């Protein structure tokens, strides 16, 4: 038995939830995955995974063993990286996930600049507004909006605070009811970013006053910020969106800022990464660069 191979296979089976997914991830046959797990269980003289024709469940011993070998494998990876990355030049692959619209407008230019400064770095970039499991997908960094992390195996660094604005097209405003306070939003067609943590709960502040508005379903909900802007430009309704998405259109008059006396609750962008990736020089340097880039 190749013990290092066996524990690596075991870890991926647990993280990906199936023998088939682990086989695809590791480039092995399903039979090879089963063989490694069986040999490991024979060596340890205890079952690590209970499997049926439909499901698999990690045993109590398997969970304990997974916790130990995950730390060991991470330390081996970090030991390798400490040597590979000890030269003056950064090199290697960084796997990154970023939200689609924000990625195109703000983050991708920063990534391109980082790669220009470090020509031996390559980046595998996934543009998606869907939240992804960093460990399961083998990602080094994900850029996300949000607040405190619920997963203790992840760490975060704040990159950018996002001011959000309420706006609509002049065409929509001309034919819609008057909008004087946030309470009036309930009678308007509000366009929704469906992947928000609270898509229909909008919060506004005016000095000491706070208005929290719960909206009824509008005529349009979408999981992409640029598509949401296009719908707003088409006169479909009112949008609450990061100002950087619509700054140009507001200046040109294509969109009009609404309720300027009220400030919408701010959001922020964070670099999220698995705890053990902090030991990687290339990942640490990449995140440091993003923090510096957005602080300009």
TrEMBL record:
SUPFAM superfamilies: Periplasmic binding protein-like II, Winged helix' DNA-binding domain. InterPro entries: LysR-type_TF_proteobact-type, LysR_HTH_N, LysR_subst-bd, WH-like_DNA-bd_sf, WH_DNA-bd_sf. One of its GO terms (molecular function) is sequence-specific DNA binding. Residues 1-59 form the HTH lysR-type domain. CDD domains: PBP2_CrgA_like. Pfam families: HTH_1, LysR_substrate. GO terms for biological process: DNA-templated transcription. Keywords: DNA-binding, Transcription, Transcription regulation. PANTHER family: HTH-TYPE TRANSCRIPTIONAL ACTIVATOR TTDR-RELATED (PTHR30537:SF5), HTH-TYPE TRANSCRIPTIONAL REGULATOR (PTHR30537). Belongs to the LysR transcriptional regulatory family. This is LysR family transcriptional regulator. It comes from Shewanella atlantica.
